[in-house]
Write a structure and sequence with these properties.
By secondary structure, the protein is of the alpha/beta class. Helix content is about 45%, strand content about 20%. β6 and β7 form a beta hairpin. α1 packs parallel to α11, α7 packs parallel to α8 and α9 runs antiparallel to α10. Bound molecules: 1,4-dihydronicotinamide adenine dinucleotide (NAI) and magnesium ion.
Length: about 325
């Protein structure tokens, strides 16, 4: 039990919800050591860099990272940090909880999103004034890797797998993706469904209960997981994991929420649930499920922060979670 966790609160409510999650970890008394790192808008203002090299080194040398949110510098911070942990899979559970109003209370989905390529390859150019292009990169290697990860994840949880794609239009790139998925499924002898991502967007709203683990190319995973966030009662509840072969970074899906930053009323649930994912990833399954259960009980019985219709502070909710651990 000598894990080193890099802790990067970042900007805005990141500085409120990350300390809350660290309080929960401290209460578990796991003997973790925490290494604090700086990144974000304030770091840019102070040092001239949104993501100093020493923060990247801290992440590379830790067993896992807990990140809050950055503000306007988010893309300059989180994309390199995900790269620093070699993250190829972005795992985003979207689940409704008893005690919290949800558009679809039966929602219990996990998006497994390819995190390295697709239209987020970064290869864009302006080929002539007013004419721009983007190169969508899809490789067999990355497609197989995300599929293996998604199948493993679903198998452990006994959930069905749906693969989102648009191979009827993007015949070569998503053609590669669906072919890789089919190869992996055949080798493993497992079943899955393939769904056109636009039709799937509608199905997820009308019948979310039909789905379990959804394996997606990069952009589809980004969009569909935010759509699912809307089904379950808001951003304050959604955790995520960025998994690499030997390292990983955990963060709430939400941003720095400048509209409520500094008021002490941010919902810490997303970040505390991200911590539960971190514990499970580090193979402290028991501690992870204790944290998850304590958050669920608190969501069910309160207290609730204002985003969930209550009047509790971040600290009240965190203390209630710790009491229930
Ligand atoms: P946001 O997620 O920060 O906020 C959207 C809305 O949800 C706001 O009304 C906010 O008050 C509310 N909200 C979010 N998290 C909450 C929580 N834990 N408790 C209660 N209410 C919560 O997204 P927005 O407003 O689009 O972006 C704000 C800033 O955050 C921008 O500068 C953006 O670049 C950055 N951002 C950073 C991300 C990251 O670091 N990974 C991700 C998304 C946005
Ligand atoms: Mg997004």
């Amino acid at each position: 039990m000598s894990e080193t966790i890099a802790v990067i609160p970042g900007d805005g409510i990141g500085r409120e919800v990350v300390p809350a999650a660290v309080r929960v970890l401290d209460a578990l008394d796991m003997g973790f050591s925490f290494a604090m790192g700086e990144a974000g808008d304030d770091t840019l203002a102070d040092t001239g860099e949104a993501l100093p090299d020493r923060t990247v080194e801290l992440v590379e040398n830790s067993d896992a990272t807990l990140f809050g949110a950055a503000g306007e510098t988010a893309a300059d911070v989180i994309l390199p940090l995900r790269a620093a942990v070699g993250s190829f899979a972005n795992v985003r559970p979207a689940r409704a909880y008893p005690g919290v109003d949800a558009v679809k209370p039966e929602t219990d989905l996990v998006f497994v999103r390819e995190n390295t390529e697709g239209v987020y390859s970064g290869i864009e150019s302006e080929v002539a004034p007013g004419v721009t292009t983007l190169t969508r990169v899809v490789t067999e290697e990355a497609s197989r890797r995300i599929t293996e990860f998604g199948f493993d994840y679903a198998e452990e949880r006994d959930e069905p797998v749906t693969v989102a794609h648009k191979a009827n239009v993007m015949r070569t790139t998503d053609g590669q993706f669906v072919e890789s998925v089919a190869d992996v499924a055949e080798e493993r002898g497992v079943e899955y469904d393939a769904a056109l991502m636009d039709a799937l967007a509608m199905q997820l709203i009308t019948q979310p209960e039909e789905y379990g683990v959804i394996v997606c190319p990069n952009l589809a995973g980004d969009v569909l997981s935010d759509l699912a966030a809307g089904l379950v009662g808001g951003l304050g509840l959604l955790p995520s994991a960025n998994i690499g072969p030997e390292n990983a970074l955990f963060e709430p899906v939400h941003g720095s929420a400048p509209d409520i930053a500094g008021e002490g009323v941010a919902n810490p649930a997303a970040t505390i649930l991200s911590t539960a994912m971190m514990l499970e990833h580090l193979e402290y399954e028991n501690a992870g499920s204790r944290v998850r259960a304590a958050v669920e009980k608190t969501l069910e019985e309160g207290p609730h922060t204002p985003d969930l219709g209550g009047s509790a502070t971040t600290e009240d909710v965190t203390s209630a979670v710790i009491e229930r651990l």
